[in-house]
Each structure stands twice: as C-alpha cells, then as structure tokens.
Amino acid sequence: QVQLVESGGGLVQAGGSLRLSCAASGSIGSLNTMGWYRQAPGKQRESVATITSLGYTNYADSVKGRFTISRDNAKNTVYLQMNNLKPEDTAVYYCNLYRWDITTTANYWGKGTLVTVSS
C-alpha cells in the first residue's frame, strides 16, 4: 500500500504564491509518476502537473509558466510551486501516484488540500 499526505494549502490573494508538498510512504516502486490534480466546485477533477520518476514533467496549459512541479526521490516527496495565483486556481488539490511494473499497475490518491485564491 501507498499513503500520500499533502500539505501547504491555504488562502492567498491573487498574484500570491503557495507551495504544496506531498509525501509518499509505502511501496511506491522505482517506476512511477507523481502528480497534482485539482477539483473546483461543480467541476471535474483535472490534471495540473505530473512528473515521472525520471524527471519528465507535463503541465496543464492553464498553469504553464506559473506552476512548477518537482520531486525529491530520496524523500519520496513531490512539490508544486504555484506563483501568480489566480482566483480560478481555487480548488482542492490532490496528490496522485501512479505506479507500474512488468505485471501490475496501481493508482493512489491523497485526501486533498484546499487552495483558495481571493481576488
């Protein structure tokens, strides 16, 4: 099993910054992708940014140039630095880990952390 614990959410004014962290514990495997997803009220969950265990990253168009995802493999932790936040970034942010090997795949979610951006 894998446990994901997010931290760093909160209330910030538009234009401000926040840094989210997600610490993973358990059998995360050597091949995995960690990422951040978000869900705003009344909307579907969407991908924000992902990073593979080899460091390849992918971003939603809406956050490119403002958000940066990184990871510390020694600490099994992924970060999301969010700059120039906008009210439309308000959502619950969920950490995700997708693990695979030659025979199995597994997908894990954290409980989420709320980010509120005031205008």
Give an overview in words.
The protein is mostly beta strands. The chain contains no helices and 11 strands. It has strands at residues 2-7, 10-13, 18-26, 32-39, 46-52, 57-59, 67-72, 77-82, 91-100, 105-109, 113-118. The strands form 2 sheets. Strands 2, 4, 5, 6, 9, 10 and 11 form a 7-stranded mixed beta sheet that branches. Strands 1-3-8-7 form a 4-stranded antiparallel beta sheet, with no helix packed on it. β5 (46-52) and β6 form a beta hairpin. The chain is elongated. The termini are far apart. The model has no long low-confidence stretch (mean pLDDT 96).
Task: Summarize the model shown.
By secondary structure, this protein is mainly β. Helix content is 0%, strand content 59%.
